[in-house]
């Protein structure tokens, strides 16, 4: 069985990402790993094999602003691989995503309660994909600007759809063991191949430095490939938005005011 295998790289990454969110950083001590180079991480990637023309008529090689963003695809009953979640490349071979992406059915009810997993996120351990299903039904698309061709969203070249890779093994948090209510909503997927030679793909920088900090009141960028009820199950073009980092204390105060 290739799943749920403990190895040093996974252990290191899990510790890091559960403490801080992924961000760009500067460190005095260079940390080198087999699939991670701090001198390469966090760089935006320019496509060289094709050109696009923007609304103003300018033609050139497009640049992927967040080349670490990946699409998590799961094989549906009809045989097609549908985009169900987004993820982040954290090395040239590893992807960080959410455990709830692999829940078989939403709407599970807690005994004696009307809350469903869509609102209270309650679930049972047997409601997630089996280890075998995660490995055989999951594919990851890297280096993509689009999910499919759609001219109205600027998705006009097949190369914008990136490259899709298989998953060789994974490590999953305790999300399902605690009824999806006590954290651990994390999965790290290991890809069958490195993305080093994939156009438009690169991994994000990890905050290894203990003093890495994102200050309150700073704008940060949110991105991903999730479902959008207003546009169908998934977005054709890559979505990015700017959000204000309020910090844990500020968010708690806003929540209390709303209540």
TrEMBL record:
Domain Peptidase S1, residue spans: 40-226
Biological-process GO terms, alphabetical: proteolysis
Entry's family note: Belongs to the peptidase S1 family. CLIP subfamily.
Alphabetized InterPro entries for the sequence: Peptidase_S1_PA, Peptidase_S1_PA_chymotrypsin, Peptidase_S1A, Ser/Thr_Proteases_Immune/Dev, Trypsin_dom, TRYPSIN_HIS
Gene Ontology MF annotations: serine-type endopeptidase activity
Keyword Metal-binding: no
Recorded superkingdom: Eukaryota
Gene3D superfamilies assigned: Trypsin-like serine proteases
PANTHER family in alphabetical order: TRYPTASE-RELATED
SUPFAM superfamilies with a match to the protein in the record: Trypsin-like serine proteases
Name of the protein in its database record: Peptidase S1 domain-containing protein
Record keywords, A-Z: Disulfide bond
The UniProt record lists the keyword Nucleotide-binding: no
